Amino acid sequence: QVQLQESGPGLVKPSETLSLTCDVSTVSSISYYWSWIRKPPGKGLEWIGYIYYSGTTKYNPSLTGRVTISEDTSRKRFSLHLSSMTVADSATYFCARGTTSGGIIAPYFDYWGPGILVTVSS
Amino acid sequence: FDLTQPPSVSVSPGQTASIRCSGQNLGNKYVSWYQQKPGQSPVLLIYQDNRRPSGIPARFSGSNSGNTATLTISETQAMDEADYSCQAWDGSGASLGGASFGGGTRLTVL
Fold first, then answer.
1. Is B67 in a helix, a strand, or coil?
2. Confidence (pLDDT) at B94
3. CB pairs < 8 Å spanning A and B
4. How far apart are the CA of B71 and the nearest CA of chain A, in angstroms?
5. Which residue in A86, B48, B68, B88 has the most C-beta neighbors within 10 A?
6. Contact between B30 and A104 using a beta-carbon 8 Å cutoff
7. How does the average pLDDT of chain A come out, rounded?
8. Residues 39-58 of B with CB under 8 A from A
9. What is the per-residue pLDDT across A65-119, written as a single tens digit (0 to 9) for each?
């Protein structure tokens, strides 16, 4: 059973950078897409981005330029950095594992962390 | 790309609920479905259009064709009351782009 756990500040000031960490209970495999997803209050889920093998990353175009996802060398932790935070970035942030199977490269998110509520306020 | 879901669906206990997700040429993509209850993280219900992870009851099924993917919940129970979201990727394989989620559908079991 894979477990993921987010950690970081619950309150961020406008214009600051949010830094979140996701600890994974097993060593990261090259087969997975380690992802960040958020859910603003009253809205739907929004994919932020993923990090894959060899540090390959892909980000939501709406956040490009503000977002960076990185992986720890131990491959048991990956991080999210989101700069220039605004009130619109207030949300519950989830880390999740994207898995592929059957040779189909369209990951599905089979394990999620419990989520961390981040509020942007001065 | 945009995925559109109805904001809410209501169903009586024991009946069948259908939640639709629409997007341009969605039938050419692989769709996943997630269930989320208040205060909890999402749970994967369906992947690759119609596959169920272990532990997910057979009451949950999925289909995808044309511009619409459908999550079907048969013999709906009170415990199925939750938000349901569809998800798909732009591109696949070496051309994998970004992921999109539908806006979510609140299922009410009356």
1. coil
2. 75
3. 71
4. 16
5. B88
6. yes
7. 93
8. 40-44, 47-48, 53
9. 999 999 987 778 999 999 999 999 999 999 999 998 888 889 999 999 999 999 9
